[in-house]
UniProtKB/TrEMBL annotation:
This protein's UniProt keywords: Hydrolase, Metal-binding
Protein name stated in the entry: Fumarylacetoacetate hydrolase family protein
Gene3D superfamilies per UniProt: Fumarylacetoacetase-like, C-terminal domain (3.90.850.10)
One Pfam family per UniProt: FAA_hydrolase
Residue intervals of the Fumarylacetoacetase-like C-terminal domain: 27-233
Translocase recorded as keyword: no
InterPro entries: Fumarylacetoacetase-like_C (IPR011234), Fumarylacetoacetase_C_sf (IPR036663)
Length: 235
């Protein structure tokens, strides 16, 4: 096939312990899926159902588990914020999935950062406009290699610690068990409004204490049993 412009390069994430890669399709994000973060952002975690927004696949930055990766401070913002998240890689698609089917849909897990231009997001929210300007921009989704979903990994993640440090100072700390909506519930709800496809990623939400970073800051993000990633902000 002949294209009138150059075809955009597809983003792929490595699979831990394999020579195969995961071709990234769509990136779905769950808003406010930890109770304390919901309260922090002015919502009622007992009342509000999960809601979703998306990042373009081109936002994804593969981050090796053994090295520091740099991302650029983005244009048009003065409030560039971190959100550490457990990321789920979808291996089987479908619509209106049951809980059992949602569990089977999970190919693996990764560590991710939902980087946010918070000032732009806030402006959009006040006017009732979409969030893309604050969420879906270049290098806004640094994500680790994917750990395949084995029974031991899945079970251990239920009680896994999730956290983030900036320049060695602890900023976020919680447990995956504190998700308001479980991984399977999130996938079920998502499949009620979108047809999920193999290659999709789901960022499952962030704990409380999100905050800003500036040029020169280094973030250390981790999910217990999956390891850690280091991401430095450059000019």
């Amino acid at each position: 096939m002949s294209y009138i412009v150059a075809e955009q390069e597809r983003v792929c994430l490595p699979i831990v312990g394999s020579e195969q890669s995961f071709p990234v399709g769509r990136v779905y994000c769950v808003g406010r899926n930890y109770a304390e973060h919901s309260i922090e952002m002015g919502d009622d975690p007992e009342r509000d159902p999960p809601f979703f927004f998306a990042k373009d696949s081109s936002c994804v930055v593969p981050v090796p588990l053994s090295a520091t990766t740099s991302i650029s401070y983005p244009m048009a913002t003065e409030q560039f914020e971190y959100e550490v998240e457990l990321v789920v890689a979808i291996g089987k698609g479908g619509i209106n999935l049951t809980m059992a089917q949602a569990k089977e849909a999970v190919l693996g897990y990764a560590i991710g950062l939902d980087m946010t231009r918070r000032d732009l997001q806030g402006q959009a929210k006040k006017k009732g406009r979409p969030w893309e300007v604050g969420k879906s921009f270049s290098e806004s989704a640094p994500i680790s290699s994917i750990f395949l979903n084995e029974a031991t990994v899945s079970e251990r993640l239920l009680q896994a610690e999730i956290g983030l440090k900036v320049n060695g100072e602890l900023k976020q700390m919680s447990c995956i068990s504190k998700l308001t909506w479980s991984i399977e519930e999130v996938i079920c709800k998502l499949s009620e409004v979108f047809e999920l496809r193999p290659g999709d990623l789901v960022m499952t939400g962030t704990p409380e204490n999100v905050g800003a970073v500036v040029v020169g800051d280094e973030m250390l993000a981790w999910v217990e049993h999956l390891g850690e990633i280091r991401v430095r902000v450059i000019d």
